[in-house]
Design goal:
Protein name: Branched-chain amino acid transporter AzlC
Largest sheet: none
Keywords: Cell membrane, Membrane, Transmembrane, Transmembrane helix, Transport
Number of helices: 12
Number of strands: 0
Subcellular location: Cell membrane
Helix content: over 70%
Order of helices and strands: HHHHHHHHHHHH
Pfam family, one: AzlC
Strand content: under 5%
Radius of gyration: 19 Å
Family: Belongs to the AzlC family.
């Protein structure tokens, strides 16, 4: 794979990542600022983003870092928050098949936003799928790290009330959901997901609904797979 092919693939992938660029810069800055208010400098926040790269859990981890450490609680909380990635991985098995040496990086950087983009689009016919998917994953990864760096740097000079700042993560998820919902072929599965989540919210409560919701959604999709795929 020569340099020109890589450049061509990254140019083709970039427009798809622009919404994530804007969202991740804001989210990353919010995370960097929040870390700064808790006494963790820019280096620590950037290291966390570069190594962990799990946006929602990173926001949750701020509380874990500033409280008495409970390994079991941290482990279970991480599973609950990130359980959805199990389903992302299963859904991307066919897309990431035959990706060669870049496959571990693609798996490592498969966040919500990258999944939303990569799962829903097909690379242009004249572009290498491996370079195309790597471009999406790498750019989204760098957006998050850059946003964190900017937030950590700005946060060291600014002092203001950060209450509610972490809501930007929820806002981004909502935007991604609406973007997928506007596509006619995705509406039935979106409604199924909303129904399953609402049922689990009523039964298990907001603190324990994530894993039951994922299981119920999976069961519904398996039951309806023939109709959905037809």
């Amino acid at each position: 794979m020569n340099k020109q092919e890589w450049i061509k693939a990254f140019k083709a992938a970039f427009p798809y990542t622009v919404p994530v660029l804007t969202g991740f810069l804001v989210l990353g800055m919010a995370y960097g600022i929040l870390m700064q208010t808790k006494g963790y400098g820019t280096g620590w926040s950037v290291l966390m983003s570069a190594v962990a790269f799990c946006g929602s859990m990173q926001f949750v981890a701020i509380t874990l870092l500033t409280a008495v450490f409970d390994p079991l609680q941290a482990f279970l909380l991480s599973i609950m928050v990130n359980a959805r990635h199990l389903f992302y991985g299963l859904s991307m098995l066919s897309k990431y098949k035959g990706m060669g040496k870049v496959r571990p990086f693609l798996i490592y950087t498969l966040c919500d936003e990258t999944f939303s983009i990569s799962y829903g689009i097909t690379p242009p016919a004249d572009v290498s799928p491996r370079c195309f998917y790597l471009g999406i994953s790498l750019m989204n990864y760098l957006y998050w790290v850059l946003g964190t760096f900017l937030g950590g740097t700005v946060g060291s000079f600014l002092h203001f009330d950060t209450t509610g700042l972490d809501f930007v993560l929820t806002a981004l998820f909502l935007v991604l959901f609406l973007e997928q919902f506007y596509k006619q072929e995705n509406r039935s599965t979106a409604i199924m997901g909303l129904f399953a989540s609402a049922v689990c919210l009523l039964i298990f409560g907001s603190a324990n609904m994530v894993i039951p919701s994922m299981i119920l959604i999976l069961l519904i999709l398996l039951a309806e797979r023939k109709r959905i795929c037809s």
